[in-house]
Specification:
alpha+beta, about 55% helix
């Protein structure tokens, strides 16, 4: 199962982290010049996550922990064709 870990910071929210990872993955895919199923799946999961997620809610949830100096990690997966996330705080 494909799992993507995103780590927001005080300067880059979860949405920015997802956009940066999408840009990085798309660039890597284009640079390779050949099909790569794993990268295709990663790009699609990130695209769906960016299109369907309530980032205002996620920023509010994660922001309070970031302000306390804690590390927040979001793990993205695909379940039954829909992006899902799990937030962990350390």
């Amino acid at each position: 199962m494909l799992r993507i870990e995103l780590i927001p910071t005080l300067t880059h929210c979860i949405e920015s982290a997802a956009r940066q990872e999408l840009q990085k993955s798309t660039g890597e895919y284009m640079h390779r010049g050949k099909k790569n199923k794993r990268l295709e799946e990663k790009i699609e999961l990130l695209r769906m996550f960016l299109q369907t997620t309530d980032f205002r809610k996620l920023r509010a949830e994660s922001g309070k922990y970031l302000m306390e100096g804690k590390t927040v990690r979001f793990t993205l997966t695909l379940e039954k064709g829909n992006p899902k996330y799990e937030m962990k705080v350390n």
